[in-house]
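_Full entry_
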Amino acid sequence: MIKSFGDVMKSSITTGAAAAFASQSRGVAYLHSPGDAFSRMVTLIPGDGIGPEVTKSVVDVFHAMQAPITWERFDNLSGSLPDKSPRLSVPPEVLASIKRNGACLKGTLFTPLGKKNTNTQSINVQMRKDLDLHVNVCHGFSFPGIPLRFNDLDIVVIRENTEGEYSGLEHEVVDGVVESLKVITFEKSLRTAQYAFEFAFLNHRRKVTAIHKANIMKQADGMFLKACRQVSEKYPEIKYEEMIVDNTCMQLVSRPGQFDVMVTPNLYGNLVSNVVAGLCGGMGVCPGGNVGNGVAVFEQGARHVGRDLAGKGLSNPTAMLLSSAMMLRHMKLNSFADRLTGAVLDVYHAGNKDVLTPDVGGHGTHFKFTEAVIRNLE
């Protein structure tokens, strides 16, 4: 049986990524449809902060392995306008491009907040709502060569992506009193739960844990749990558990190996994804993506702008490279995705401190890391 992506990740820790992927692919042929070798258009939004650097790494690696991708670029799109005020909406031509192409690779957009614009929604959140990217996926796993407190981690966080505390419904009732509305709907909870269990089934995962705070928010989080329980009944072969979010955070930093697939409302997913990323090496290593109906936007699993690192050559392109591998699999370009993933993991398996970036214990640059990945493609 062909291994799941997570199983291949685990085997790479001891055997070497390239060897694991070579072993996996021996005797396996991807049967394409006529015309699949023609180039496909993908929207590229480099974004702010380290976004232009890490997306350039992807462009360079795709060029080196001759992936059939043509980029429709929006290099000037930022979360702020030239006068440093926040951008209030996603340009229509950007949304049209993503809908037309069906796939987008995106760096994080920075939305400045200040005393005069505290009610401004992040342009990243606005894009998810405009495109109805209702599910976010963050994949955290142990890397060979990165000293971690826990090894053999392989956790997928699946997060509702459009409502909850991110609904953006706030107002000041009277002076000094602010009311912020958390909106949970059964329809959106249900489709998030369905995606989580489908993911677990298709990737040979054994357990789904629903994260909640229904002991306090009995109706809102209770509705989310109702949807999860309803879907779980259709997958009796997958173990289903529920865990309160504060206990989840404690369990993640003490016994993370108990988790497999986690399904969460919006805010809890943000918190949990960042804890998982921290356990696995930081924001620079965990890939992620946002999925809707007929459209997907891929970005770092732990979505940070990294403005303090921009222009210094210290950014880690791993998360963006592996997010682009996710994108290739989503587009059914599996062999390119396997080559890319194997090349990235082999850089870690080699453990050359001159190549690895500082966030994972090295003293290299993102240029050196990208060059090493390209060499491993040969």
Remarks:
- The first strand starts at residue 40 and ends at 45.
- DSSP finds twelve helices and twelve strands in the chain.
